[in-house]
Amino acid sequence: MHADEMLEHLMALPKVLEARLSPNGRWVAFVWYHRHANLDVFAVPVDGSTPPIAMTNTPEYTQLVSWAPDSQSIIVNEDHDGDEFVRLFRVDLSRPGEMIPLTEDRPPYFIRGGYLHPDGKTIFYGANYDFETGQVIEPTRLYRHDLQTGERHALTNPSKPDYQFSSLNPQGTHLLCSRKDRHPAGRQFHLVDVEGGEDREILNFGDDVKTFARWFPDGENVLVLSESTGKGKQDYQSVGVYHWPSGKLRWLLDDPSRSVESALVSPDGTIIVDEIVEAGHRASYFDAQGVLRPFPSLPGNLMPLGRTPDGAWIGLYSSATWPTEVVRFTEAVRSPQELLSLTRVWELTRLQPSDLKPAESFYWNSVDGLRIQGWLYRAQPNPKRAVIYVHGGPTHHSQDDLNPQIQYLTRRGFNVLDVNYRGSTGFGLKFREAIKEDGWGGREQADIAAGAQALIQAGLAEPGRVGVTGTSYGGYSSWFQITHTPVETIAAAAPICGMTDLVVDYETTRPDLRPYSEEMIGGRPDQAPQRYYERSPINFVQNIRGKLLIIQGALDPNVTPENVRQVRQRLDAARIPYELLVFEDEGHGIVKVANQKVLYQRLAEFFEAALG
């Protein structure tokens, strides 16, 4: 298959990004990518009796927020061209496609969450806005919004910004709400009364300790995932259950040998634990006797979402040769072919798994001897040129998963290495936290450069024929590599929406994202000015010897276009040549299908010219 034909098929290959079981366990709502022009939300019955139903179909970026308590409608949000100033909508299962607006269009503030009360007349969400004064503020307050009168009442008043996680219990009496008032590296949870009579901290295991909490269906018990049980910060995460009326907490899983990444509660109350080992999901669940039982181990990744009323399991399945699907399965399943697909993706494409390049686990040692893993995609025959793909986050990881950009680059004749540098999830908490020892722009960048050298040593690329690209932190890493790594190792870079000046980024980004920079760099710019300077690629553009293609979304509120404006001034002053590709209708990342096609072709052309 020709590369351009392959690209057309990849751009039409649907992939599920996230999914949630309804409270009654009878429906799955999910975000489907590449099914329409942008991200849209679909729903499908868990018995697979009908194909997925398009709940939304717009040209905008539409995300799933939550299920209504009665399982008859969903809450979604939608922005404009990726600006992240979202509006909340309700969409009923009985009227798919009819998006009922709940909040104002184009607000001047950022909304977090959106949870409908059982009475259907009230919704709860976070907003960095003071509705009494009409002023944008930095902290995100949790609001109760009367949908009939429009009245909003602030339920919380945090002192510092936080990328807030909140949720409403099924009974509609209380909310869980995260806070970062104590330390930028920590996260505590508060219990908030929906009437505004109570806002008290219930989960705090250390100021700099991250905790996460989810409701059980009974509305009294809370699933807890924490980096500590209160005896000091750990190198692993523990799982427990907190009963808020009594204040009692019991730990179910407190094992340093278990690499717990996340945990959730099925609609029937079953606790599902997700361990990620070497960037691969290994899920299990607690049975009625409290025994932790593993789910079937399949090639690729199987992530259960919960159990249906008839006892079947619903989950997400994916691999590099299998786009993420919603599947139904039993514990007897032994191969991907035995999974019952609810999204029926292979009926929607001419592609077959054999048309896609598999992911091969690839290892190397970094400068300090730390073992680093990545996913290698081999072009055939071996072109002896390669592209390093760097995931964003950095608190994220790449897994055995279908990435259209990578698949297209391999088809265009590049070996591709998808790097899980230190700071990535998927290798345990100690590995994730290792990036903080140096801060951004430290040894995680050496991990990436060492990966390029490992490709050269393995005969998969020649000196001067390795490029690098990535979005967000991957974009920052691309900037860092081209300004700090010899051209023999990294000869070209295509940063996408990447930070160039960490001070500019801190000052212009969303306020709820600033604590993350403080956590990762070791303080605010005024507290660590030297580190912000040393780790900002803009201050080293004079070192660039390789080729450079800058890609940016013009409406990006996360890594703002000011990063590009200022670095271009430095590049021009130093007479460093570069190419520029700006998408006027995109935000943080290039997500519209038509724009992705342009981007992927341009990337391939750029690397072909730069690497030969």
Oligomer: single chain
Number of strand elements: 36
Question: Could you name the CATH homologous superfamily of the domain at 357-506 and 551-611?
Answer: Alpha/Beta hydrolase fold, catalytic domain
Q: Residue ranges: pLDDT <50 for 5 or more in a row? A: none
Q: Can you tell me the CATH architecture of the domain at 357-506 and 551-611?
A: 3-Layer(aba) Sandwich
Protein topology:
Blueprint: H1 3-11, E1 15-21, E2 27-33, E3 40-45, E4 53-54, E5 62-67, E6 73-78, E7 87-92, E8 100-101, E9 111-116, E10 122-130, E11 135-146, E12 152-154, E13 166-168, E14 174-179, E15 188-193, E16 199-203, E17 211-215, E18 221-226, E19 238-243, E20 248-253, E21 260-265, E22 271-277, E23 280-286, E24 292-294, E25 301-307, E26 313-319, E27 322-329, E28 340-341, E29 360-365, E30 371-377, E31 386-390, H2 404-411, E32 415-420, H3 429-433, H4 443-457, E33 466-471, H5 473-484, E34 492-496, H6 502-508, H7 514-521, H8 529-534, E35 547-553, H9 562-573, E36 579-583, H10 593-611
Parallel strand pairs: 31-32, 31-33, 33-34, 34-35, 35-36
Antiparallel strand pairs: 1-2, 2-3, 3-4, 5-6, 6-7, 7-8, 9-10, 10-11, 11-12, 13-14, 14-15, 15-16, 17-18, 18-19, 19-20, 21-22, 22-23, 23-24, 25-26, 26-27, 27-28, 29-30, 30-32
Describe this structure in a few short sentences.
With 612 residues, the protein is an alpha+beta fold. It contains ten helices and 36 strands.
Question: What tags apply to this protein structure?
Answer:
Rossmann fold, 8-stranded mixed β-sheet, 36 strands, 612 residues, 4-stranded antiparallel β-sheet, 34% strand, single chain, alpha+beta, 10 helices
